Amino acid sequence: MVLTAMNPKTLVWIERLVWIFIYAGALLAVLGLFVLRQGLDEELGQNLGIGLLLFGGSGVGLGVFLIWLRSRLS
To answer: Got the DSSP string for the chain?
Structure first.
């Protein structure tokens, strides 16, 4: 299944968003792991670490989805 042709500027924007989401998501996930392992405040550190980890993982997942979407555009 190939989606319809897109404007070249739109494709460039999708490619930029891919790298922004993947790198920012990976950075947030690593920061979340760091906060979890440091154990700043028992409850706050755990909640903040898990939140950063989930938010970062979601960003990476969105970046991977955009790569798939870009592969389907002509």
So the answer is: --PPP--HHHHHHHHHHHHHHHHHHHHHHHHHHHHHHHTSSHHHHHHHHHHHHHHHHHHHHHHHHHHHHHHH--
